[in-house]
Design brief:
The complex is a heterodimer of chains A (about 80) and B (about 325). Helices cover about 85% and strands about 0% of the residues of chain A. Chain A is an all-alpha fold and about 80 residues long. Chain A is flat, with a radius of gyration of 14 Å. In chain B, helix 3 runs parallel beside helix 6, helix 4 packs across helix 5 and helix 8 packs antiparallel against helix 9. The chains are: A mainly alpha (about 80), B alpha/beta (about 325).
Chain lengths: ~80, ~325
């Protein structure tokens, strides 16, 4: 993959993460919508990982599970802040 | 020491990540965080005196801070009025009871109904709302920084009286602290008895029992025949959060505990991925795995969001 393609791929990920953060700010009054914003962004991150590694020809179950496990950690961490009780 | 380094840093010549970033470790982190949440839930439900929702918001402090802001603008201090305090408590309880957070209730009940039903006949009145804050200073600072009318209420020249309620309860299924600040002025001495001493913190239990007295339109006209009611001032999103006082103070504040665990855990994970990136680049290791850059980005999303997640809200 060329550096230019890499750049585009990462730009998409930055936009995905940015949208997630925007959702957290916009839905400031609603913990459920805040969580859904983060959930959507994390889902996008996993999809991005699968797509990016597929394009690179390096997509394996081990790689995909790494993205899924980090998604689990991020969502568990977000849930802990948003729904402590 | 060497054993610890081997856990954190990938082994020389190996293509695998360090033990702390292995799949097994990541799974453990996820399970650990879920278990922490489960423990908090179980302990807080069964032992609320140990682990529960707590905030350091105090009605007296908010009133003192409001008057300090007014003094800074060469404005006279507001006097604590027990009727306005009662109105603020009624409004806070009504919001918990009807599960809404706004100046105007979904059933159309305005803040002025609570003021009038408490017996305070206003010429001018205003309301500020806040929720999810952890201390009084942050509430006052947020109102002062607001461009939606909260600051105008705090520094209103037409007001002479104030009442604040701080109430804990469950709103939208989540525990929170509501702060309601009511301002008012009356032409004749028909307002509540003015208290010059430090305002007592209102004790309002989360369970709502008091219902606002229904006020007819006719009754709602303050001081009929004396003076036309003045302007009722509401911030653009018109709502003041009542100060909620908890009936008990838990040993550990669950919100702060959860936020701290989550925050330090993310910082720890971010540090590990950054260290791994540094070492991989330095050694020129070729590895078939997920991209550290992507992982760091999604962790930063959560870390950055914490700033907004921890901030309270005003109306």
């Amino acid at each position: 993959m060329s550096p230019k393609e890499h750049l585009w791929h990462y730009l998409i990920l930055v936009v995905n993460v940015g949208l997630g953060m925007l959702g957290v700010i916009v839905f400031g009054q609603n913990p459920l919508l805040r969580f859904l914003s983060i959930f959507g962004s994390v889902l996008g991150y996993v999809a991005w990982g699968a797509w990016h590694h597929f394009v690179e020809g390096r997509l394996t179950w081990l790689v995909l599970s790494e993205y899924l496990l980090i998604a689990l950690v991020v969502l568990a961490s977000a849930s802990l802040i948003l729904f402590p009780l | 020491m060497r054993a610890l380094v081997q856990i954190i840093i990938p082994r020389e010549g190996s293509h695998a990540r360090a033990h702390t970033l292995s799949h097994g470790a990541l799974l453990l982190y996820g399970i650990f965080l879920l278990l922490v949440q489960l423990t908090i839930l179980v302990v807080s439900r069964n032992f609320p005196g140990i682990l529960g929702f707590a905030s350091n918001i105090n009605a007296s402090e908010i009133i003192a801070q409001t008057n300090a802001e007014r003094a800074g603008s060469n404005l006279p201090s507001l006097k604590l009025n027990d009727k306005l305090t009662k109105a603020a408590e009624l409004k806070a309880n009504y919001m918990f009871e009807k599960d809404f957070w706004a100046h105007i209730a979904p059933d159309g009940t305005s803040p002025w109904k609570f003021i009038l039903s408490s017996g305070y006949k206003y010429l001018y009145a205003g309301e500020n709302l806040a929720k999810d804050f952890q201390n009084s200073g942050d509430v006052t600072a947020a109102w002062m920084a607001s461009k939606a009318g909260h600051r105008e209420n705090l520094l209103g020249r037409n007001y002479t009286d104030i009442g604040v309620a701080v109430v804990n309860g469950t709103l939208g299924g989540f525990q929170t602290t509501l702060v309601v600040q009511m301002f008012g002025s009356s032409a004749a001495p028909v307002g509540g008895s003015e208290v010059s001493a430090a305002p007592a913190t209102s004790k309002v239990t989360p369970k709502l029992t008091a219902k606002p007295v229904a006020v007819t339109e006719e009754e709602a006209s303050p001081q009929k025949g004396v003076q036309t009611p003045g302007i009722a001032v509401l911030p653009k999103p018109v709502s003041v959060i009542p100060v909620v006082t908890m009936s008990f103070v838990p040993v550990v504040d669950v919100v702060a505990l959860a936020k701290n665990i989550s925050f330090y855990f993310r910082v720890f994970l971010l540090a590990l991925f950054m260290l791994d990136s540094f070492i991989v680049i330095r050694r020129g290791t070729v590895r078939i795995s997920g991209h550290n850059g992507a992982h760091i980005m999604v962790l930063l999303l959560l870390l950055g969001s914490t700033w907004f997640l921890s901030a309270g809200a005003i109306r």
